Amino acid sequence: MTDNRGEGLEQRRKRLAAELAERKRDTGIEEAAEKSAEQSRKGYAQAMKLSSEFISAIVVGAILGYLFDRFVGTAPWGMIVFLLLGFCAGVLNVLRSAGMVSAPHPADRAARAKNERQDGDSRSDQR
User: Could you tell me the pTM of the whole model?
Assistant: First the structure.
């Protein structure tokens, strides 16, 4: 009686081990699919961020150009200039957000400002 029981337990253990292995494999597939979906969502979010930054810079340039033309009376020229400036600002914002162009480090800005002040002092001393 113990031999049959031991044999039955051994078969049940093998069957359970096979089921666990199958579930682990299925879980691994599900985790891989979830990681892929997460990467896709991150890419979509990044694309929306970049496009909204670009479009908003152009719109702000156009509005400023319109207002400049309206108050100064320089018909299409203010709109053209500010629209081009908005386009350039939009491209620069997108490049910064994408990591292609980095903002200057605060220490570099401070050193540049210090050098400019020293150059200004030396020029006034020469006069």
Answer: 0.56
